Amino acid sequence: MEIVSNHIYPVIWQENKVSLIDQTRLPGEYSRVEISRSSDMAQAIKTMIVRGAPAIGVAAAYGIYLGATEIETEDRHEFLQHIEQVASLLRQTRPTAVNLFWAISRMLKIAYEEIDTIENIRTTLLRTAQAIQAEDLATCQAIGDHGLMVLPATPNKLRILTHCNAGSLATAGYGTALGVIRSAWREQRLARVYADETRPRLQGARLTAWECVQENIPVTLITDSMAAHCMQQKMIDVVVVGADRIAASGDAANKIGTYSLAIAAQAHQIPFYVAAPFSTIDFDLADGSQILIEERDPTEIYSIDNAVICPEGTEFYNPAFDVTPANLITAIITEKGAINPSSLINYRNAVA
Ligand code: MRU
To answer: Which CATH number fits domain 144-350: 3.40.50.10470, 3.20.20.60, 1.20.1250.20, 1.10.1200.10?
Structure first.
C-alpha cells in the first residue's frame, strides 16, 4: 500500500514492525508506538492504542503475522499450535467488533493452507495482512462514494451529526461514517460536522474533532446529551455513524449512545445511516440480541482526568456499545452500496 505522509494511517507496516498511532494520547500528543510482538499487539488493542472495528481487524492480522515470526520451527504442527495460541490471545482483547474475529479467521485459513515451507507461510501471512489493510482503505473510499448517493438532497449544505470516531483512525484510512463525511466535504456538500463527545472515552472529542481539524472540516463539538436538543432546534440534517457488528437482521452495534441518537433521529424525522464495510456484518447472528457487548473498567466513568466524580459506595455499569434496531436505521452504507437493513440477509452469499 502506498503511504501518503499527510494522511492519517493508524496502522503502518514498516521496517519489520507495526507502527500504530497511539490513540490514547490524541489530541494532546501525536505519537506512534512500534509493535514487534504479538502479545504487545494484543495489549495495544485491549488498551485502545488502536481502536475502531476495521482498524482492530487490520492490527490483529499483523498480530498473527508477528506471532508467526516468533517461533523457529519446521514442524507444521508445532507452528500451528503456536499460531492458534496467538489467535486466542488476540481474540480475548475486545469482544464486540466482529472485524477482529473476521481478520483472525482469514489469517488462520492461510496458516492452514498447503504451502511448502513455514517460511513461505510467513510470507503469505504478511501479504494477507497487507491485503486486508489495502482492501479496507479501498472499501472505506467506496463507502464514502456510496454515501454521497444517499445523503439527502437539500438546498443548503448538510449538517451531519456523528458519534464516536468512525474515521481514518478507526480504519485503515479514510473512515466509514467519517469517510461519508469526507466525501461530502470534497464534493462541497457539507456545511458542518456535529461531533458527539462520546462519553466515557471521548472518541468524538479527542479523535473525530482532531481528524476534522487536520483537514479544515468545520466541526462543532457537543456533549452526548445535547444531540436531541440540536435535532429539535433543526440544526441537524442527517446522522451518520459507524458500526462494530451488524447482525443478519440489520440490527447494528456501535458505540454506547448510538441507540439513543437513533431514537431521537426518528422522533425528528432525520435520516439515520450506519456506514460499515461487509467485514462488519456477522451473518451468523440472527439479530442484535446475540451481539456480545463489551463491558469496560468502571474507572472510565467514575473519574475524569484522574479526579473521582462520584461518592465512594456508588456502583457502576459501563457497557461500551449498544444495539440500534434495524427499524431505526434508514440504510446501511457499505462498499457495495446502500442497503435497506431488512434486506441485508439477501447479501449473505456476497460475503467472502
Ligand atoms: O471502542 P471503540 O473506540 O473501538 O469504538 C469504536 C466505534 O464504536 C466505531 O464507531 C466503530 O468501531 C466503527 S469504526 C469505523
So the answer is: 3.40.50.10470
